[in-house]
Model the fold of this input.
Amino acid sequence: MDGWGSDGDDSALVASVRARLASGDLPGAGLTVAAGPGTHHPCIVCLMPITPSQIEYEVSDNAGAVVTSHFRCYLLWRAETRRRDRGE
Ligand SMILES: [Zn+2]
Done:
């Protein structure tokens, strides 16, 4: 399992992502480069390692680097990046 809660329990992570986007600790989510099984890299969103039983997304950030995140974390991160970019 993904280890950070069940459906509907994302509010703490959402708040963390929002705060880190606002402070610049977390870059904005860019385009997906690749997806596949996890290779124990830490997820940039929730900071937990991505295990081989989970889907790892390689994502280009707005600074030109490539970072890794869980599939589900990526969706949340992308949504929060768009919210920020709309000025909400
Ligand atoms: Zn994650």
Remarks:
- Residues 1-5 have pLDDT under 50 and may be disordered.
- Helices lie at 11-23, 71-85.
